[in-house]
Design brief:
Blueprint (H helix, E strand, L loop, with lengths): L2 H30 L15 H14 L8 H24 L9 H5 L1 H24 L1 H6 L2 H22 L5 H12 L10 H16 L7 H7 L1 H4 L16
Helix pairs in contact: 1-9, 3-5, 5-7, 7-9
Length: 241
């Protein structure tokens, strides 16, 4: 295995390790952080089952965004298209991570290809709103643009690999399975694939330290995930006991 392959195998392990450890650190930090007040957005459920039922439409359809004005509805449209297409693309890519490939993954291949074309269009909507909506121009930070451009780079290089500069998929799968089984092999002989892979690893490394952690945050947001029982049960933070 040449030096380039060795470097990319090492970087792949580092990226996954940073992603997993960083993600777990944020989860542990949340559970260690005191929650001194009951602040669910009312009307709110009184029990855990109700909280789960409340979260389902929020997770699947971003319901709260639909209640805002024009800016929020534009955000809803772009975000929903982005997240759904991203999920379908990830599910399609599971064929590179499994052997044999499950039938359900194979059944998603065509819809995953369609999603790959929707994906950059949805990202362009999210990028455009940061330039065209005055409020978004004011609150947008440099890193907001960088992460959107990084994800856009992943989508565009993926399309180029699919339609214009194809690489050997057998080599791609062998490389990925080699990383997963701790048996590293040579990376595919394709500069575009290495660029695509580099973008993905950068995303993994940056994910736990960015706003992308809202993927976890939506599940534990106090305004959505708390029960509305301040009168029935006295709520005392752990540090105040």
């Amino acid at each position: 295995m040449d030096s380039v392959s060795s470097v990319f195998n090492l970087l792949a392990y580092l990226a996954v390790a940073i992603f997993v450890l960083g993600f777990l650190n944020k989860v542990i930090l949340y559970f260690r952080t005191p929650s001194p007040l009951k602040i669910p957005t009312t009307p709110a459920p009184k029990n855990s089952v109700g909280v789960v039922i409340r979260l389902i439409p929020e997770i699947l359809f971003f319901r709260s965004l639909l209640r805002g004005g024009t800016a929020e509805k534009i955000l809803w449209f772009g975000s929903w298209l982005f997240h759904v297409s991203f999920l379908l693309i990830i599910l399609r890519h599971l064929r590179f991570f499994t052997y044999p490939v499950p039938g359900v993954v194979m059944s998603l291949q065509q819809i995953g290809i369609w999603a790959a074309w929707v994906f950059p269009l949805a990202l362009l909507i999210l990028i455009a709103r940061r330039f065209l909506i005055d409020r978004m121009v004011v609150i947008s930070l440099f890193q907001d643009y960088i992460i959107l451009l990084l994800i856009l780079g992943i989508g565009i290089t993926g399309l180029l690999l699919k339609y214009f500069m194809r690489t050997n998929l057998v080599d791609v799968k062998a490389f990925i399975l080699g990383v997963l089984t701790l048996s590293p092999v040579a990376v595919p002989d394709s500069l575009l694939f290495l660029i695509h892979l580099s973008f993905v690893m950068l995303l993994l490394v940056y994910f736990p330290f960015s706003k992308l952690m809202h993927a976890w945050g939506v599940l534990i947001s106090p305004t959505r995930a708390q029960t509305d029982t301040p009168r029935e049960v006295r709520h005392v933070a752990s540090w105040a006991e």
